[in-house]
Design a protein that fits this description.
The protein is of the alpha+beta class. The protein is built from five helices and seven strands. It has a single domain, classed as Gcn5-related N-acetyltransferase (GNAT) (Aminopeptidase, 3-Layer(aba) Sandwich), CATH 3.40.630.30. A seven-stranded mixed beta sheet has the order 1-2-3-4-5-7-6. InterPro entries: Acyl_CoA_acyltransferase, Bact_Acetyltransf, GNAT_dom.
Length: 174
């Protein structure tokens, strides 16, 4: 698919919660559902998505900085910056908690726009590095982050229901 310039970035509001949540859940299912038993998948979806899910709660948290990519009126991706929690992080580092793109927008510029915003945001607050985690089986994302210069600096145990995945902790020196 061709890169498009029809993407605009902005900060989501509570009115965006349902659309953001629906896009995020669909993206997560498209990317990861095949790796899990139904009961683990259901537990993760129930905890993270829906009106009472973590994503909607996080949207209301003023300590979390969001940016959404829109094409027309549709949310086609988002980036979510959080206070660093990874053991590999220095307190002044920045942490990109999630960068999700709707499946039909892969390769069309939304991920690049959101990553560029994430790096600029981290730099604007003086962070010496930007850290993130990525599932070890998400080869497309690992390659994408590698193109930006992120390097693997450790591992992170990520629970999905009762299954514990190995996520790679990746770091970009700013």
């Amino acid at each position: 698919m061709a890169v498009t310039t029809d993407i605009r970035l902005d900060t989501p509001t509570p009115a965006d919660a349902a659309a953001l949540d629906a896009m995020a859940e669909a993206s997560w299912r498209d990317t990861f559902a095949r790796f899990y038993k139904p009961e683990d998948l259901d537990a993760f979806i129930d905890e993270n998505f829906g009106a009472d899910g973590r994503l909607t709660r996080d949207l209301a948290n003023p300590a979390i900085v969001w940016q959404v990519a829109r094409a027309g009126d549709a949310i086609v991706g988002y980036a979510k910056m959080v206070t660093p929690t990874l053991e590999q992080a220095h307190p002044t580092d920045a942490q990109l908690s999630q960068l999700y793109i709707a499946s039909d927008w892969h390769g069309r510029g939304a991920a690049q726009a959101l990553m560029d915003w994430s790096i600029a945001h981290a730099r604007s607050r003086g962070a010496p590095a930007l850290l993130l985690t990525v599932f070890e089986e998400n080869h497309r994302a690992i390659a994408f982050y590698g193109k930006y210069g992120f390097v693997h600096v450790g591992d992170y145990a990520f629970p999905v229901g009762r299954q514990i995945d190995r996520d790679l902790v990746m770091r970009l020196a700013l």
